[in-house]
Amino acid sequence: MPMMPWRTSLARAGVGLPLAVIALVVAAIVLPQASDYALRVLSAAGIYALLALGYSFIFGQAGALSLAQGTFMGVGAYVSGILAVRWGLPFDAALPASVGLPVALALLVAIPVLRLQTHYFALATLLIGQIVLLVVTQWESVTGGANGIGGVPPLALLGHAIEGRLPALLLVWALVVAGGALAWQITRGRLGDAFAVLRTHPVMAGAVGIDPGLLRFTAFLLSAGYAGLAGSLYVHAIGVLSPDILGFPVMVTCLTIAVIGSRLRIAGAIAGAVLIIELPEWARFLRDDYLLAFGCILLLVVVALPGGLTEAAERLLGRFWTAPPVAPVVPVRIQPRALPARGDALLRVAGLGVRFGGVRALDDVTMELRAGEILGLIGPNGSGKTTLLNIITGIYRPDGGQVWLGGRAIVGRKPHAIARLGIARTFQTAALVPEMSALDNVAVARDAACVGLRQALAVGLRDGPRARARAEAMALLDRMGAGQQAAVPAGALPPGVARLVEIARALACVPLVLLLDEPAAGLNETEQAELARRLRRVADDGVGLLVIEHNMPFLAPLADRMACLDHGQLIAAGTPAQVQADPAVIEAYLGTPVAMPT
Amino acid sequence: MAASQLLLEVLALGAAYALVALGFVLILNATGAVNFSQGDMVMAGGFGAVLLGNALHVPGLVLLPLLLAGMAALGVVVAAVAYMPLRRRPPEAVFISTIAVGIILQNAANHLFGAEPIAAPPLLGAGRVRFAGIDASVQSLAIIGVAVLLVVFLQVLFAHTQFGRRLRATAQDREVAMAIGIPVDRMVTVTFAIGAALAGAAGLLLANAFFVTPTSGADYMVKAYIAIVIGGWGSIPGAVAGALLIAAFEVLYPSLPLLIPPLLRMAQSDTVFSQTTSTIVLDVAVLVILVARPRGLFGDAVRQRP
Amino acid sequence: MSAPLLVVDALTVHYGNVPALRDVGLSVLAREAVALLGANGAGKSTLMKSIIGLVGVDSGRILLGGQALGGMRADRRARLGIGYCPEGRRVFPGLTVWENLAVACWGEARVRAARMEAMFALFPVLAQRAATRAWQLSGGQQQMLAVARSLMDAPRLLLLDEPSLGLSPRLTDEVLRQIPAIVAAGTSVLLAEQNAAKALAVCSRAVVLKLGRVAASGPAAELAASDEVRAAFLGG
Fold first, then answer.
1. Strand A561-566 vs strand A374-378: parallel, antiparallel, or unpaired?
2. B135-163, pLDDT tens digit by residue?
3. How many domains does chain B have?
4. What residue of C is the nearest CA neighbor of B161?
5. How far is A134 from chain B (nearest CA, A)?
6. What is the C-alpha to C-alpha distance for residues A595 and A588, in angstroms, rounded to an integer?
7. Same-domain check for residues A419 and A525
8. pLDDT tier, A331 (very low <50, low <70, confident <90, very high otherwise)
9. d(CA A352, CA A364)
10. Domain limits at B18?
11. A175, part of any domain
12. Helices A266-282, A16-30: crossing angle, 10 deg rounding
């Protein structure tokens, strides 16, 4: 009897659910008697929880170290505060602007900034923060300059001002719950899995059709939106607008919460915020030096507890409480793509050349791959085989030449676009996400074009698209003979099985062409024979296979045709027997003896 | 104001910034990681100079070696705590750990000294000199002198000593350096020590002319970062060039109305050519550079840790 | 019979889950050159890196001159007398030829000067370009520099990892031609090569690796004539 889908989702919530229950119970007991001051601090914790929840999209899910989260919060605060003081717009009416403007700012800087590498991206976000802070302090007429603006009215909802600390706190925490639920909805399904792939292996993400740029963009905008909301809550809660909100200490606090709470977990963001904001209250002697304490805590946690407290708690709990078993998945066959007739050219490469530094890695390579055939590509180390694969899949751009898939020229397209057109590949070191199960690793490649924010918001508790992706993935795993290990985390799979899972994932993209980079490496002879059998069957379905290998006993009986590269040039092509006997090939591999001095 | 006067100001400011950027790029080269606490180390150097000056009542030049030694010790501690345990993790772990170190330094300084700006003792003495139509403070000349000396010292160290050559080798290929017998971890610790000492020197020099507060480090950090990006990520001469460019910009931009009279009309409000606006313009310019050339103005001189 | 200089005994190395070396054993005597052959992925580089200590070992022993190396760090092993010339040359690009050589010598200035003379005698082209930065050298010159660098501290054992990679046949010959001279000067050589014929011509013994295991070993002349070597590469 399959488990109720919502129970499985809840079970995956990890330590969050028990924590939430405990928190509610404690709150119900403590809050009615709490002092004004204590309520104020708890509200601040809620606001920072929202900030950290937003940050977990860009820092946790997308894995990008943005230093602009505090800036987005400050922008939200300033917009809401100025609209309230100068134009009398209450908190809720100003929300479209106080959330919208940070998002607009994120949009403005996202496209050029997101593609920067870590060290440049961090600097760019830092500079954005500095620019905003300086502009705000300069623009006195609007923002009140360094002195800020006082007299910001308290929170208001639907025309009623929210006087009193307890109602204000309840509003803040209601929004935290809503924000947490939204974050959960967005990340619990296929989009969360896609983010996991992006974080672990950005190059591989493109190879399965995931658009890394779009994902990072989405995460960045979401983080800005949450920050804007947090900022507008903040300014109405404390009643004063000051440039302090744009200072680096806010960013540091946010970063500390994220690192401590664990960058991925929703529960972590909330628990971390409560912990960090309450800290100065519990340790009174820290009162003025709370930032000093944050610094020490941050350092300690980064060094000693890289996953954050929530992850440490989950590992601890894991010893006492195992997750319920995953329900068996019924496999569903995928609709195959319309494949050309056997023997037709699927992939054509003409005059391909590329130069790295002073070395010609590929030189005028021309070849073709036909439907239903297995083409073996051999050559000594450094001869350009993997480079050829990387050019075909769009990771590198050639200096000259063209690649055609079907009739379509594909040079210059992004890797994920090429993958979606029908070229799939595997990598020399099996690139699976270690924490995800084998099944989910394959499922994430199903229909990657349909994974996005809109789809994530639309799924119900049952998550139909994900169930279907998993069912289809199951069929693929069965086809590759790895069905028994579907629920095993990919990091625990033996290398032979990991290889099969990776091929299943490549097949999940329903490719016309499958490029395999040393699939037999590290496999024993039984596993190799098994692999060869399965690859033959894939080819028999009409897919064209290009297999790079060094292992001749494996490749020669398997391949229909072979080609040999040496120093970036194609030096032989033909049947395996022909190529193996070709004198140029023999020399490239074995060499001819050197004349020895006597 | 004569052009040569401006030039001197640019050189003096640029020299101090160059010391900050040099320390930063040294550590970057040795470890492939960004030391986010570099600016705060400069601040620590400034306060260290204040402490030593209050205790010893001697000119800054005498304090300098003591300060360098103390800061070197701080560098060793930072290396041990914020870098060594995180060697094998992705570079952003060190980003975060050094952000933490910076926060600790800042707030320790706040706790010990308060937020009021304090001046460190001058290097040689207050006072001015007149020559060739230039009226310069002794301090400005001293800054240029010390910076030049330190840069020359580093140059000699790196080009003419086995130790310096091995430091460069470690920065260029850590694995192979190990395989030929170089104790890589020790090299990294020494680099942190040198980087911190340079920050200390910069702190001493800057804290006299510009006073020092616990938060002044953040500004230097951003400037060093920008200098590295402009000058070519990882290039040592590039870092110096970048620092000089930033100094030139900061000195010349507010002076533009005086240099180009037509602009005087635009300078009606105080804001267009103020120090703040010049920082904004600089930041925007750097962002534009990053966008146009995602690999920096001159490309990565040092291959990044993957 | 002299005691072996290098003994590798039942070595097993894993990269994560993937076994790279399984129960590998070999020995190198003083004053001899041994060829380590095998297709790419056979485990040659992994074996070299295990000996110099850049890669950790799961089980088995490595002994240099009778001394077990255990978990010793790479820089200490180098100082014990192992020279390592890595795959892909990997000279220090920003250092000049002279500096590349200098950093590898741990003796005092006089010793260093003498060693450098010896290296320039071995590879005269390096003497001509002593002041050039390494990144400006051609592939062949870089390979010679890498070999010379690994000899600067007069090691007892030289690990040469695929010097022919990326080099033309003629340049490969120029580099490999020096191996007998190196051995005669007192350094044993373990030469990992894909190019079996060239390696067998300059070494006295050979070990063939296949999928992480020792598939064959024996005198070079024997293996050069056998079909086993060819089979290991081309499977024919």
1. parallel
2. 778 888 888 888 888 888 888 888 899 99
3. 1
4. C103
5. 6
6. 17
7. yes
8. confident
9. 5
10. 3-216
11. yes
12. 40
Q: Which of A299, A318, A337 is the last residue of a domain?
A: A318
Q: Which of the four pLDDT bands, split at 50, 70 and 90, describes residue A138?
A: confident
Q: Which amino acid is at B104?
A: I
Verify whether the Cβ–Cβ distance B176 to C92 is below 8 Å: yes
Q: A302–B97: do the CB atoms touch at under 8 Å?
A: yes
Q: What is the CATH number of domain C6-87+155-234?
A: 3.40.50.300
Residues of A in contact with B274 (CB under 8 A): 138
User: How many CB pairs (< 8 A) connect A and B?
Assistant: 115
Do B24 and B225 meet the contact criterion of CB atoms below 8 Å apart?
yes
Helix, strand, or coil here: B155? helix
Of B233, B279, B304, the CB nearest to A134: B279
CA distance B163 to chain C (A): 8
- Per-residue pLDDT, B298: 58
Q: Using the Cα atoms of residue B265, residue B271, residue B276 and residue B279 in order, give the sign of their dihedral.
A: negative
Complex ipTM over 0.85 = yes
What is the rounded CA–CA span in Å between residue A241 and residue A74?
Answer: 9
Partner-chain contact B290 A255, CB within 8 Å: no
Could you list the beta-strand ranges (E) of A436-531.
513-517
- Is A595 within a domain? no
- Is C194's CB within 8 Å of A521's CB? no
Per the document, the length of chain C is: 236
Give the separation between CA A551 and CA A561, rounded to whole angstroms: 15
Handedness of CA B288, B294, B300, B305 (dihedral sign): positive
Q: Which of chain B's residues have a Cβ under 8 Å away from the Cβ of C158? A: none
Q: Clarify whether residues A361 and A312 are in a common domain.
A: no
State the smallest CA–CA distance between residue B278 and chain C in angstroms: 36
- Structural domain span for residue A229: 10-17+36-318
Task: Say if residue A227 is in the same domain as residue A311.
Answer: yes
Contact B172/C102, CB-based, under 8 Å?
no
**Which residues, including other chains, have CB under 8 Å from residue B117's CB and lie 6 or more apart?**
B211, B212, B213
CA-based nearest distance C92→chain B, Å: 6
Give the start-to-end residue ranges of the domains of chain C. 6-87+155-234
Q: Looking at chain A, which subunits does it touch, using at least 3 CB pairs closer than 8 Å as the criterion?
A: B, C
* A314-346 exposure pattern, b = at least 16 Cβ within 10 A, e = fewer: beeeeeeeeeeebeebebeebeeeebeeeeeeb
CA distance C103 to A114: 41
* Per-residue confidence band for A418, with pLDDT thresholds at 50, 70 and 90: very high
C169 touching chain A per CB within 8 A: yes
pTM for the predicted model, two decimal places: 0.85
**Residue A371 and residue A285 share a domain:** no
Is the residue at B43 inside a domain? yes
Put simply, whether B168 touches C (Cβ < 8 Å) is yes
